[in-house]
Structure to design on (215 residues):
């Protein structure tokens, strides 16, 4: 009899195996985005963001709607509440979380299967700016990549009920090894680590995991 992970493609792309990642995409968040992306891949799922789509005929909202529609799972980080130089906060992440909730509440039978992980920097800080989420189990990453990896792994393991997902310590160790090797990999590919696009990062992670599982 085939094991569960032997019958599933290494990098699947079905609704039940896609994870929408709703988070900041700036340099300050890069280490967390990389950790979340890496953890999703090692759990056997496919990360999806609006950065994956490059269709000039679709505006940003259409791209986000497409991503949400395609994904059963979603990681939403609402920690970015600092004011900008004009004294205004960013509402993109809470707005996209609302779309995800709406898809589950009002969508088709498939959309009603959605499951979400909501991140904050600190455990209960969100109660000060989005009290509608009171009672929702929100996880704190404390701006630490290893914490983000563990929270993503534990949530996907519970939500999917898969028994083949590695433990958090294993994925954390693999992430550390990968990040140590990443500068050399990008140089070999003629790229620069600091300006690496999200899609290029995903390709490198996929190849890294493929090689690790062959060894």
């Amino acid at each position: 009899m085939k094991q569960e992970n032997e019958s599933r493609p290494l990098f699947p792309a079905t609704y039940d195996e896609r994870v929408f990642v709703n988070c900041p995409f700036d340099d300050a968040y890069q280490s967390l985005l990389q950790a979340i992306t890496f953890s999703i891949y090692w759990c056997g799922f496919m990360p999806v963001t609006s950065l994956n789509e490059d269709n000039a005929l679709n505006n940003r909202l259409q791209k986000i709607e497409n991503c949400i529609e395609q994904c059963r799972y979603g990681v939403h980080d609402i920690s970015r509440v600092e004011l900008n130089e004009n004294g205004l906060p960013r509402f993109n992440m809470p707005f996209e979380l609302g779309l995800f909730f709406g898809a589950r509440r009002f969508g088709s039978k498939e959309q009603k299967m959605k499951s979400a992980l909501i991140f904050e920097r600190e455990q209960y800080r969100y109660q000060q700016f989005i009290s509608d989420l009171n009672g929702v189990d929100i996880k704190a990453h404390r701006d630490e990549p290893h914490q983000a990896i563990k929270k993503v792994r534990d949530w996907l393991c519970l939500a999917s009920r898969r028994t083949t997902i590695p433990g958090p310590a294993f994925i954390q160790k693999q992430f550390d090894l990968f990040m140590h090797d990443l500068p050399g990999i990008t140089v070999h590919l003629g790229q620069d680590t600091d300006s690496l696009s999200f899609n290029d990062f995903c390709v490198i992670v996929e190849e890294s995991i493929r090689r690790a599982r062959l060894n």
About this structure: The helical segments are 30-42, 60-70, 92-106, 145-160, 168-188, 198-214. The two ends are 22 Å apart (CA to CA). The beta strands are 18-22, 46-48, 73-77, 115-120, 139-140. The CA atoms of residues 38 and 205 lie 7 Å apart.
